[in-house]
């Protein structure tokens, strides 16, 4: 890498331009160091309100998604993109690098205190920094340790455009802004909270049944069994998030704990609907009531506790329409069983060669059979190869913000038919397949066939309706009419 010592390096910026309307602004998209009117320093990519007016100061400097600086806040700007420091940084004695000639009366600002990831130094979270890249160029970005594979990255553009830490040779912080200030306050709050929670106190009225949350679930269970004789704590805890006892602001509270999607820290959400243990027990009864009601073993296991009774019923239901279905087609798909989990019988399943079963929580035998039927239908379609296809012509069709991309009728090896529909937008998309049931082909006319078919693949959901499909003689012929 470069021979210069980043610890003693100073960058002097000497070619600032005032935001006054008297001279041209940066080029559209040019990344610049910014001196704000309050004396702070940051950086951003120039995004003018009208790119045709070179001297217009109306616009903003973009730093990231929803992270911009209005040109009204900027006193001066200095390009970061017009320099390559590679040759200077090859000199091991280099201490000062002038960016633009120093001359009398010019605005000069120096930055030092550069740090390196090679020294195992990281910026603080959300800290906006001036960067010297490993290719010798200059840049800036907001440090986010949760982005990138090498410990973090510097975000500098919308849609999380970023420089990985492996691309940066050295960095130094720019001025504190509202994002960094908020992060610092959040960190300070965590420290205060940790200190408060070292020796939390408990309200004896609130925790009269002790500090084990299961004692309160058991109390609630006694009441629930008056209505639902089959109730268990395991059933109650299907209603998630489950309740816990944890410290908050130096006091124990009944709470739910969620993980922050931002930094994976714990978010404690306290119960605030009462002030006594018995009030919490009553609340817990209502909170878990639906979960217990839906766990009635007589409804869930109507066909007994042999899983084959349920699988055989699902297989026979699917076989009525998917006539080629064979049990060999199911061996690599989902596998089901009925097992005891935490003392309660549960439907469980695992996929293919997976080693562990997971609970498949459904409220009735009928619902479980429906879910198995869905899996069996999918397996049947995958096993029946396409031998011919036809795609109707269609123009631009918008479906709830997505655009119809493909609409393909397929004839299968068994002589049956399916349709495959694909829709998407500029960034994502999805496909679905629908089996065209034999009932549709029992129709005597093509028009009657479409009436039945469009109940499976309705035009308001998938783009093509009777108006488009009825005049299509090629499709009519392809479907055997």
Description:
A hairpin with a 2-residue loop joins strand 5 (59-64) and strand 6 (67-70). The protein is 25% helix and 30% strand. The chain is α+β, with helices and mostly antiparallel strands and 481 residues long. The chain has helices at 86-89, 178-196, 213-224, 233-236, 277-293, 297-300, 307-319, 365-383, 438-441, 446-456, 459-462, 466-469, 473-478; strands spanning 10-13, 17-18, 31-36, 41-48, 59-64, 67-70, 74-79, 96-99, 109-111, 128-133, 138-144, 153-157, 161-164, 168-173, 244-248, 251-259, 266-270, 334-341, 344-351, 358-359, 386-390, 398-399, 402-412, 417-424, 429-436. It folds into 4 domains: 6-173, no CATH class; 213-295, no CATH class; 299-379, no CATH class; 386-478, no CATH class. The N and C termini lie far apart (73 Å). The longest helix has 19 residues, at 178-196. The protein has a 6-stranded antiparallel sheet with strand order 2-7-3-4-5-6, with no helix packed on it. A 5-stranded antiparallel sheet has the order 13-12-11-10-14, with no helix packed on it.
Produce a short descriptive summary.
The chain has 13 helices and 25 strands.
Reading side by side through the largest sheet, how are the strands ordered?
2-7-3-4-5-6
Proportion of beta-strand residues: 25-35%
**Largest β sheet strand count, sense and barrel closure:** 6 strands, antiparallel
Number of strands: 25
pLDDT < 50 stretches: none
């Amino acid at each position: 890498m470069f021979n210069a010592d980043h610890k003693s390096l100073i960058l002097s910026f000497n070619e600032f331009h005032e935001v006054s309307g008297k001279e041209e602004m940066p080029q559209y998209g040019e990344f610049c160091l910014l001196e704000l009117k309050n004396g702070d320093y940051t950086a951003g990519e120039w995004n003018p309100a009208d790119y045709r007016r070179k001297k217009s100061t109306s616009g903003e400097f973009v730093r990231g998604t929803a992270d911009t600086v209005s040109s009204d806040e900027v006193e001066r700007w200095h390009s970061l993109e017009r320099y390559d420091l590679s040759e200077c940084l090859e000199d091991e004695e280099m201490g000062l690098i002038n960016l633009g000639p120093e001359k009398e009366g010019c605005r000069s600002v120096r930055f030092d205190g550069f740090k390196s990831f090679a020294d195992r130094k990281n910026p603080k979270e959300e800290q906006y920094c001036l960067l010297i890249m490993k290719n010798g160029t200059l840049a800036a970005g907001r440090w986010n340790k949760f982005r990138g594979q090498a410990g973090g990255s510097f975000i500098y553009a919308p849609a999380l455009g970023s420089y990985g830490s492996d691309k940066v040779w050295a960095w130094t912080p720019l001025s504190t802004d509202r994002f960094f200030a908020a992060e610092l306050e959040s960190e300070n709050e965590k420290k205060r909270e940790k200190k408060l929670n070292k020796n939390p106190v408990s309200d004896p009225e609130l925790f009269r049944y002790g500090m084990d949350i299961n004692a309160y679930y058991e109390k609630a269970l006694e009441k629930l069994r008056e209505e639902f004789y089959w109730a268990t704590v395991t059933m109650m805890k299907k209603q998630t998030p489950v309740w816990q006892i944890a410290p908050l602001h130096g006091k124990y509270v009944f709470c739910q704990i969620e993980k922050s999607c931002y930094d994976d820290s714990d978010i404690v959400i306290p119960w605030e609907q009462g002030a006594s243990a018995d009030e919490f027990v009553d609340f817990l009864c209502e909170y878990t009531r639906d979960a217990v009601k839906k766990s009635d073993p007589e409804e869930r296991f109507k066909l007994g506790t042999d899983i084959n009774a349920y699988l055989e019923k699902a297989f026979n239901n699917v076989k009525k329409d998917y006539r080629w279905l064979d049990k060999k087609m199911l061996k690599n798909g989902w596998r089901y069983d009925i097992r005891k989990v935490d003392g309660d019988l549960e439907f469980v399943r695992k996929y293919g060669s997976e080693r562990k079963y997971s609970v498949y929580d459904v409220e009735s035998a009928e619902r479980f059979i429906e879910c198995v039927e869905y899996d069996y239908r999918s397996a049947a379609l995958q096993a029946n190869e396409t031998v011919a296809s036809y795609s109707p012509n269609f123009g631009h069709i918008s479906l709830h913000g997505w655009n119809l991309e493909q609409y393909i009728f397929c004839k299968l090896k068994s002589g049956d038919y399916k349709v495959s529909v694909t829709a998407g937008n500029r960034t994502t998309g999805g496909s679905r397949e629908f089996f065209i049931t034999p009932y549709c082909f029992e129709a005597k006319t093509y028009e009657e066939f479409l009436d039945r078919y469009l109940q499976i693949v309705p035009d308001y959901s998938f783009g093509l309706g009777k108006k488009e499909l009825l005049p299509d003689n090629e499709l009519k012929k392809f479907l055997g009419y």
